[in-house]
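Lab channel / #folding
Pinned by the channel admin:
"Please post every new chain as: sequence first, then the structure tokens as a reply. Keep commentary short and put observations after the output so the thread stays searchable."

First post following the new format, from NK:
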Amino acid sequence: MARKTLVYQMYPISWGSIRMMTAFLPRVAALGCDYVWLSPIFESPWHNHGYDVADYYAVEPRLGTMEDFDEFVRSAHLMGLKVILDLPIDSTSVEHRWFLTEPHRYITQEENNPSPVRQNVLGDSLAWQRSNNKFYLALNHPSQATLNWHSHGTLNRGLIETFKRIMSFWIVSHNVDGFRLEFAQLLNETAEGDDTKLNRFLIGPRAVEVINELSNLYNQKAPFLIMDCIDPNGKVCEFYSAETDVEFFTNRVIRSTSICSKTKSLEGLKKKVANHTDNPKFMLNLESHDVPRYTSRSGLSPRTILKFMFSSDIQAVCLYQGQELGLKNPESLSISEILSLDSRKELEHERMKISNETLRRESCANARVPIPLDEYAAQEADPDSVLRIAKALIEEWRHS
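Reply from TO:
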């Protein structure tokens, strides 16, 4: 019987510091987790909450020091937890020194009107951004320039070696156990592409080539890797499962299921997950830093959600911080707080003038606020709490 795998995601900026996350690790270990996954901790101007990396070799000063991070890893390992870092490999911040001194690493055009018109991952056509006398492709966020992994069908060996060195630095010098590859599907993009549809990113040999090169880390297999996919029907994860050495795949489509009635929500969720249960590399996650709380979106009770997540046919699960408490979208956030916590909704708010009600309901800011630690303590003391139910379900799932 394959061993069940449980990952716990922590969103660093909501904790304020690495030291605060270190203090919380005993509670992560008490859930029976195997891995703790940290959203980006790298130095960043924070225009996209850390995913716009300015230096892959440095810790963001707002979070702490490299010594603080080393203590986090040491503490996690003493508790039997392994540490995964979020590794954005599709783009960097425009404030990264590469963008300033090595523009050949990026997809750029020098024409006044870049053609063809591209869509970014939000589906809009604001992907080309001007920088001085040229344009750069920004498929994720305007502050992030897309890396040019392939040019005229040839793999960029320089980028491969660069990211191998980055991964080796964190593994060898700081004892990291693995990485989550952020938006790896975007590696299918090229400067020569002329398809304006988002489908061009879903399945392609370019992403496979890069992932497998990175998996072969100086003649030895890279440690634990997770890839997050946009997968409408289960075929995308199936493809990358067969073609790459990545250990687990998550599906953004399942995680982003929209608000609907209780009946439709549970049945719809079951059908979507059923497309993946034959894939031994599938990891179920329903919440993260980039979606509202699932309890609020679905209308389902926390117990119903957790019972489904830890059903016997699910082999791997990723819990987002606070999900074990059954947290809902907070009602106290101001509009200014929402916009400061959710850069994409901030862009939509400027362009589309979306209503405050929509902001409150749909913003991922709802999942980026700190865990209420007083609520955590209260649930630990309550034998009928959601937390107690979660722990019991996880224990039963482990032995199912």
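NK: Residues 157-173 form the longest helix (17 residues).
TO: also worth noting, Residues 336-366 form one domain.
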